[in-house]
Each structure stands twice: as C-alpha cells, then as structure tokens.
Amino acid sequence: MGFFQKIIDGLKKTKQRIGFKLNELFKRGIFNDDFYDELEFILLSADIGEDTTIDIIETLRERMTEDNISDPKKANEYLKEVMLEILGDEHLELNPPTVITVVGVNGVGKTTTIGKLANIFIKKGKSVVVAAADTFRAAASEQLEVWADRAKVRIIKHEEGSDPAAVVFDALSSAKSRKTDVVLVDTAGRLHNKKNLMEELKKINRVVERECPNAQRINLIVLDATTGQNALSQVDVFNEAIDLDGIVLTKLDGTAKGGVVLAIKHDMDIPVYFVGVGEGIDDLMEFDAESYIEGII
Amino acid sequence: MAAFSNLTDRINHIFSKLKNRGALTELEIKQAMREVRVALLEADVNFSVAKEFISNVTEKAVGEEILKSLTPGQQVIKIVNEQLIELLGSTQSKLGVSPKLPTIIMMCGLQGAGKTTMCGKLAYYLQKQGKKVLLVADDIYRPAAIKQLEIVADKVKAGFFQMGQQNPTKIATNAVEFATKNGFDTVIIDTAGRLHINEELMDELKSIKKAVNVFETLLVVDSMTGQDAVTVAKSFDEALDITGVIMTKLDGDTRGGATLSIKAVTGKPIKFVGTGERPEDLEAFHPDRMASRILGMGDVLTLIERAQATFDEQEALKLAKKIKESTFDLNDFLQQFEQMGKMGDLNDLVGMIPGASKLTLGDKKIDEKQLKRNKAIIQSMTLEERSNPKLLNYSRRKRIAAGSGVQVSDVNKLIKQYEQTRDMMKRMTKSRRLLF
Ligand SMILES: Nc1nc2c(ncn2[C@@H]2O[C@H](COP(=O)(O)OP(=O)(O)O)[C@@H](O)[C@H]2O)c(=O)[nH]1
Ligand SMILES: [Mg+2]
Q1: Whole-prediction pTM value?
Q2: ipTM of the complex, rounded to two decimals
Q3: Per-residue pLDDT tens for B290-310?
Q4: What does CATH list as the number for B103-302?
Q5: How far does residue B23's CA lie from ligand 2's centre (Å)?
Q6: Other residues' Cβ atoms within 10 Å of the Cβ of residue B156
Q7: Which residues of B touch A224 (CB under 8 A)?
C-alpha cells in the first residue's frame, strides 16, 4: 500500500476515533499506556501542541495514580479539571471610557470581530465608535463601514494609504467630544515578523496613551482556530509590540479546535475572552472554558 | 556547519552516547525519530501523517551505512530530508493552458486564506507571460470583497468583471462570455471563503465548476494551518477534484508543516507559494526548501551540501571547533571569506543560514567588492595581528590601511564586522530559537 493511501485510510479511522472520542475511551475504564496514547492523539489533533499535551497527560497520570482512580466518570472529571486549570475562567469587564485595539495577522477575522463586538456593546447600551486604522489592505475601510452600518455605530476613516495613527487620533478626539463609551480600533493584518509594521502598532499605542491616559485599555489579538503552533509565535511577537490582554478565537464553526490557546495560556498566561462561530453579526460569544473543553475531548 | 542546526544537534546528541559502528541500528533510529517527530509536530504536520512518515523513514534508514563524511546524526537527517522532499513532490509551478480558450482558473479555500490577494499575484505572473487576464469577483458575501478585487485588478492592470451580489454561477458564466468576446485568454474566478463543512456553499462551487469549463481548480491554504489542514484539503478535493494547491503567507516564521499534510492526503501538486502582499510576491514551490523549513533548519541542508562540495572537511570541522572554543580569529575570518567566495553567491548563502536571515541582517547585502577589499585588509596584517586582533591599535591600523590602499575607517569597519560575526556565530551555536 502506498504512503498516501495509508494516510487516507488512517484519516478515516481518525474521523471515527474522534467521533467516539474520549468518552468511549473513558468508559473502557482501563487507564493503561494505550489509554494515554489515545489521549495524546486527541489532544495533539486539537492543536494543543506537544509540550502542553505532555504536561496535561503527566499531571493527569499523577493525580489518577495518587487517588487510585478507576471509575471512568471520575477520570473524565479529572481530565477536565486539569485542562480547566490551565485555561482559567476570565471575563472582560468593561469600564468605560474604553479603547480596544484589535490586532492579528492577515485574514484571521479582525474586521469581522470588530463588527460583532460593536454589536455586543451596543446591545449592552454602550455607545461605540470604530476606527478604520487598516489603511493598508485594499477596501479594508469599506469592509469595516459595512459592519459599522450593520451594528449601527459611527466610523472614522481616512483614505487608503494614510497614516493609521492619524485615524486613531481622530477617532479618539471624536469619542472624547461626544463622550463615547467604547472606541474599537481595527488594524491592518501584518505578519508578525515585519518590523516596521510592528512599529506602526506601537505608534498607535502611543497615540492612545497620550490622548486617553485615563481610559481603560484593552488590546486583543485575534487568532484563527485553524492556525497551528505558529499562533504561539504570533502572540509572542504582538505581545512585545503592544501588551496583549486577551484573545479572540475565531472560526470555531469549522472543524478545527484551536487548542493552541491552551498552550498560549499555559506558556504566556493570556486568556481567551471571545470566540467567533460564524460570519453573522451575532456569531461572537463570550468564551466559556468548560464548554470549550467539552468540545475538544 | 551542521552545528547551526537544532534538530541535527539533538539527534547528534543521541548518537554521541552510543559508540559508532558503521551501520545504523533500529534502536538508534527509533530514538532519533522521536526527535524528528517532535520537529514535525512543532511544524504542524498532521499527527497521523507524521506517524506514517516516521514509520516509513525508519524502514528506509535501518541498516544504512554511515557515509564516511557524515556523522550518524547527519546521516539520519539526510534520509529524513530526502524522504520529505520526495513526498512533497516536484517543482511544478506551472499553470495549465486549456486547449479551448479561455483558460479558466477557479480559486477556492477557507475564509482568510488569501485568495483575493493571490488572484492579483497570478494575474501579474500570467500577464508577464503575455496572457490577457480577466479577474472575476465571485465572492458575493464578504463585505467589500468585490471592491477589494477591483482595486487588486487595477493595481496589476488586469481586466475586472463583476455583477454585484448576483448568483455566483451566473456571474461566472457571464464572465466567461465577456472574456471570449473581449479577447481575454485567461479567466481567474475569485470565490468567497467558505468552510469545507458548509454543504450549501460547497455545492455552489460545484455548480460554478459545472457551468463553466474550469481548467485549474486551485486550493489556497494559509501555511500557518494546523492539524485540521488534512480535513480541509480532503474535503475540498473530494468535492471539487482540485488540480493544485497554493500555500500563502510563507513570508512569516511559519514552519509550514500543513504543506506535507495536504500533499499526503490529496496527492495534488503544490504549485506556488505566496511570500508577501505585493503582486510580485509569488514564488515557485521548492520541495527542498520546504523540507528544511518543516524540519526547522532554514536551508541548512543545502548549505551542508554546498559546504561539503567546496569546504575541506577537516577545515570545516576545525572552524566549527574554533567557533565553539571562541578562538575564531582574523585568519579564520579571511579563510571564511575565501571559502564563501568559492561556494557561490554570498547573498544566497546568508539566506540559507538559519538565524542569519534577512531579519537579523536587516536589508544589508553583502557586497562582493567589499569582500575583496576586506581580504586585502586582512592580508596586510601580520600573522601575529591576525591571530590576536586585540593588538590592532591606531598606528597599526594606519599602517594596514596604507598597505591595502584603504582608509583607516575601512579597517575599523572590518574589525567591527569580524567582532560581530564572531559574536553571531557564538550565539548561533548556543541559541535554539534563532533557528526558526
Ligand atoms: N466561518 C467563520 N468565518 C469568519 C469568522 N470570523 C471571520 N470570518 C471570515 O474570515 C475572513 C477574514 O475576515 P476579516 O475580518 O476580513 O479578517 P482580517 O483580515 O483579520 O480583518 C472573512 O471572510 C470573514 O467573513 C468566524 O468566526 N467564522
Ligand atoms: Mg481587516
């Protein structure tokens, strides 16, 4: 049998295996090496990554042995607990006036997320203005404009190619004079190894600092759930440019699990605040660690 | 040279504990393969693909004679690398031309993969080959997607066709008619990003494909994709029988393991890679470069090969030892210049050293003239000065400058450069992270 055929057959099995998932595995009630191998496979397939996976498994193994666990239900709870401890349970508390800057690499869903966030805040009775500081990508501000219309919020935009920091400055001035609660800043997607683009972010950051020293500042990075281990590097580098407070994990309506957020929380202690589950304006939810873990295992 | 490589280092470490006897044994290979597995998973190669790959390579490697010139670690890496390259396929960056014009290319993929940008790049590339290209806005869902493609088309001076938010199949049919009437020989259809599990939207693509005679169906994939790449690629291929794959955003620091996963499950050729946001940032797919990237070794393998072809093995070993012991002096620096000269284009070479990528060097390019001047400067030094650069005070520098026909500032620059190189090499042998 050729290499490719074997992989394809293996995949079919994978699907079945993920289908019956861990529950079945737990039901067997035999917690031997095979069990931990299967568990490893499931965790790695969710993009949790080698290091964090090994950590989860070791911790679980230790605790199970220590407490002499053989009851499948209990074992399942133990696993969830280990994962929950990593993810934590943090929520975003708005304390207006608030400036939220949204960053991330190209195509992850920043602009869409801004539209959805604006909608959430409006529904909570806050006033919102969005700043089209992606002046780089073709038609980016037109795209944000559509979202601003949908969420019924104001938009501040300049021409394509203009200085993003100037857009932010205008948005902040407008927010100050109208006493707007929340300013949402959309930025251009940038691969995290481009130094000058990172400088641009720092500049935006300085403008916010100078213009609104007393505002609540929240810097969110958007990660695409389809992304693998590179997300770690994305968070690392953006965090260096502007301190990140949290993550928005998008595209969870696909088949990818975005498990790399466990690795990120594990290594860098940055929590997930929201998850994107579609392209509609209501398809953004507050992150719930417990149901997220249910979805993985 | 292999001292630069993280994976090679780790694997060498395994072998260093064992005594060397001619052929690789199963146990040794197994231990080395564990490291390879970690490297593959870190690179986002799909778990099942990695597993299968490793069992394949293990079979191949057992019993192989260790080449005299290589350490066992290098030998294993060489086998792994060769297998990877073979699986990744060949350099096949060609787009087919339909016997019945226009040639119709349909782009498809997940949301945010980079389809629209890629349309512009392909148009630019094909136009340079004398084609007349029409870009068709068939993403009727994403806000401002049509506008984005229009701007892209404008930028590369390609034709542009849109019918607003109408039925995508109808748009495609009309676009092809328009192309035929107006002398376009190539039509590129930009479709909306969609999830592979969205049946309705997948049917839409099938319908377009049926309605017009699509010649190339290209799957566009973000090279940062993780484990799910296999599911996505398989679904698109099953639904649409794709003709090729394009990996995007390879200008980042991504290891791109998804490329191997996708190749493994679809068997379809990787046709191009996208390496930036400008229309000209489109490159041919090179399986060898991709393999090294996946293994996290930059192009270090090519470097090893070139080095082996030109470097005297003994000299190379001596140099590596010197770097490690920090006795790398100006004599070695000179020798390095000479050997580098032999190895081919310098700028090429620097690009192959992990950690010495454009990122570390900025946009500084190595200038061949400068190189000759540097050689002359060192040659004007006494042997004593060369092995103990600390001796080089002002009066000595002045003498050297006069002797080699340059300014003292040039001599200073060279010494500075030597110090930087020495420090960089020290760092490279120490740091793991520099490798990606
Ligand atoms: N399925 C799905 N698609 C999304 C989600 N969030 C964004 N997208 C899509 O991803 C693509 C890129 O989004 P965009 O907001 O333009 O990304 P940006 O470049 O980061 O601003 C668009 O086609 C969006 O509709 C999500 O949660 N689920
Ligand atoms: Mg955007």
Answers
A1: 0.80
A2: 0.89
A3: 998 888 775 555 555 555 555
A4: 3.40.50.300
A5: 55
A6: 20
A7: 112, 222, 224
